[in-house]
Structure formats: structure tokens, C-alpha cells
Amino acid sequence: MTEGIVVLVTAGTRDEAERLAQALVGERLAACVNVLGPIASVYRWRGEVQRDEETLLVIKTQRRHFDQLAARVSALHSYENPEIVALPIVAGAAPYLAWLLAETSAPPE
């Protein structure tokens, strides 16, 4: 399934992550979102090394939805510059990949 991707997004709180997950699945921009955390994030921001506790979203979707998904995450997210990183799905169980495709292809209910 070359059109499948996993998108990683971090959020500042679990509540924010849950709201993002609900919106993305509800709007069929994602078939599934795993909400993991808390996680420790260490990063450089505005010249300073930062360390924060965040929640990680692991989003499964189709490549063709990336731009719309990224725009939706940016619109809903509290961060000035949210992490939105896509990784290709190079292989997977055929039934799962078919389900992913179906859940992000069907018209909204």
C-alpha cells in the first residue's frame, strides 16, 4: 500500500491530543489515531534547549489526505509550530491496510 502513511503529531496535553484524534477520525482524515503518553520531548526552540512532557499522536491515513490533515491539525493545535511528520507505510497486513483505505475513502456518515 504505497498510499498509506503514518503521521506523527505531538500535543501539549492529553486533552488536546484527544480532541485532535476525535476530529481527524470524525472527519475521515484518519482511519485510526493512537494517543500515547506522556512522553518526554527534548528539542531546540528559539535558540534554547527545551524539555517538555507531551502526548504523541500516531495517525494512520492515506498520503492524499496529508495536506488537508496537516491544515486541520494546524488549525486546531495550540502550538505556534506543531510537529506534523509523515512516514510512508511500506508494508503491512493486507486486511488492515484495506480497512485503513476504506475508512479514509468512504463519505462522512
Overview of this structure, please?
The chain is of the alpha+beta class. It contains 3 helices and 4 strands, in the order βαββαβα. Strands 2-3-1-4 form a 4-stranded antiparallel β-sheet. The longest helix has 13 residues, at 14-26.
Mean pLDDT: 95
CATH class: Alpha Beta
Helix content: 25-40%
| Global Rg | 14 Å
Distance between the termini: 25 Å
Secondary-structure content class: alpha+beta
- Our estimate of the beta-strand percent is 35-45%
Q: What general outline do the C-alpha atoms trace? A: elongated
CATH topology: Alpha-Beta Plaits
Count of structural domains: 1
Strand order, biggest sheet? Answer: 2-3-1-4
Order of helices and strands: EHEEHEH
> How many beta-strand runs?
4
Topology:
Blueprint: E1 4-11, H1 14-26, E2 32-45, E3 48-62, H2 66-76, E4 85-88, H3 94-103
Antiparallel strand pairs: 1-3, 1-4, 2-3
Throw out a few tags for this protein.
single chain, about 110 residues, alpha+beta, about 40% strand, elongated
In short:
Helix content is 31%, strand content 38%. With 109 residues, it is an alpha+beta fold. The chain has a single domain (4-103), classed as Alpha-Beta Plaits.
